[in-house]
Design a protein that fits this description.
By secondary structure, the protein is of the alpha/beta class. Helix content is 24%, strand content 21%.
């Protein structure tokens, strides 16, 4: 690594799709920079995705800046390993200055000359600007009640799940019915595992609607451009992204038809060993149905306003199948009696920013404080945060706009 007296215009932390996108535009602007990556390019994609994982966006839309898809399956869905290869190829073709195996362990402001100093095991870097592109979905969250589960249960997070065969013999309880929970539950049941799914109040989307992939409609109708402020509820929270299957729709009822035992929301442990669930299963199914209907109604209205010649909707098997609900509803169960050996927590993620020591950049929960990716501290930026600016923030669709906004801000500041 170069001497710490070699001042750079910018340092990008993280070599995932967001960090590489920022690096691409920094290079286009002629700014001297380095990308510091804790492991390998796309490390989170390599180590925090299961073996059968596929991208949620069709191949034709899973592209990096300046690239277009020219493969044989534009409406297919890229595997985890194929996406990592795409990132590696993009970095190599564009000669992006990536330093792998270089985790940033400390970021502070050097008050002597008002620049930033980034400490790594391989030495220090100094830069006028720092773009934090390490993401805010790489640290798993478990509810406090997880600590009270019986000690004989094997517990892992969604980020540690790889394949059904790697789990202990027996049934599996998946807690959380968002994208990870729904897709992992389906992966398990299709492998012949017994699966219990503790559901939540999560919306869902059809995979295809009126002849097009749902991502086409989200982009075309403007739903991806809805600003963050319009996604906040009265308490200032943003709902989890809707459940979306890969290649086909997934609904709670379609999972139950495949053999998944549906439960209400997990609420804790009682009597030492029994797992308790809320009486809200039917409400959770209804919420998913209503959210899907609302999305489709919005798309129908858009098609009508624009006068588009689009085929009518076809029945979706995930929606037309009747749910197979436990009768009576399961409010409590003994994992030993039900043969449950594993619990997979699909209960959300946060970001790991413990290495940031610049005042005012993180809140009390050690999460980013920013306005459209720009921190209050001059010269600090965030890229790739989920739902940071609009609904498309945190997805590949933001790559054509958000990294450029960061680079433009850096150029003005320069």
């Amino acid at each position: 690594m170069t001497s710490d007296t070699d001042l750079l215009d910018a340092v990008v932390v993280g070599a995932g799709w967001a960090g590489l996108g920022v690096s691409y535009y920094l290079g286009q602007a002629g700014l001297r920079h380095r990308v510091l990556e804790r492991g390998r390019i796309g490390e989170t994609w390599r180590t925090q995705r299961w073996d059968s994982f596929r991208m949620n966006t069709p191949n034709a839309l899973s592209v990096m800046p300046g690239d277009t898809y020219d493969g044989p399956d534009p409406e297919g869905f890229m595997t985890r390993d194929a996406f990592v290869a795409l990132l590696e190829g993009f970095a190599a073709r564009n000669r992006l200055p990536v330093d792998t195996d270089t985790p940033v362990v400390d970021l502070a402001c050097d008050e002597r000359d008002n620049v930033y100093r980034l400490e790594t095991p391989r030495g220090a870097r100094r830069a006028r600007n720092v773009v934090i592109a390490s993401g805010n979905l790489n640290r798993s969250h478990r509810p406090a009640a997880a600590a009270a589960l019986p000690p004989g249960l094997f517990q892992i997070d969604a980020s540690d799940y790889r394949d059904p065969a790697a789990l202990p013999a027996g049934a599996v309880l998946v807690v959380g019915s968002g994208q990870c929970g729904g897709q992992i539950a389906e992966d398990l049941v299709q492998a012949g595992r017994g699966v219990f799914l503790a559901t939540g109040r999560v919306g869902r989307l059809p995979r295809r609607y009126r002849g097009r992939d749902i991502t086409f409609w989200l982009r075309r109708s403007g739903l991806y451009d809805v600003p963050r402020k319009d996604l906040l509820d009265a308490a200032g929270h943003i709902a989890a992204r809707p459940l979306l299957g890969v290649g086909h729709s997934i609904s709670l009822q379609s999972l139950s038809a495949q053999g998944v035992v549906l439960l209400g929301r997990f609420i804790g442990v009682g009597d030492g060993t029994r797992l308790n669930f809320a009486d809200d299963l039917e409400e959770n199914i209804r919420f998913g149905d209503e959210s899907s209907t609302a999305f489709k109604r919005y798309i129908d209205d858009y098609i009508a306003r624009e006068g588009l010649d689009i085929p009518a909707a076809e029945p979706d098997p995930a929606e037309s199948v009747a749910p197979h609900l436990p009768d009576p509803p399961i409010r409590s169960l003994d994992p030993v009696e039900c043969g449950i050996a594993t619990v997979i927590w699909c209960t959300g993620f946060g970001g790991d920013f413990g290495w940031v020591r610049v005042p005012g950049v993180l809140d009390a929960r050690r999460q980013p404080v920013h306005e459209k990716g720009v921190a209050a501290q001059p010269g600090i930026y965030f890229a790739g945060l989920d739902l940071a600016i609009t609904r498309k923030s945190g997805t590949l669709f933001a790559l054509t706009e958000e990294p450029q906004l960061v680079v433009e801000h850096i150029l003005v500041r320069r």
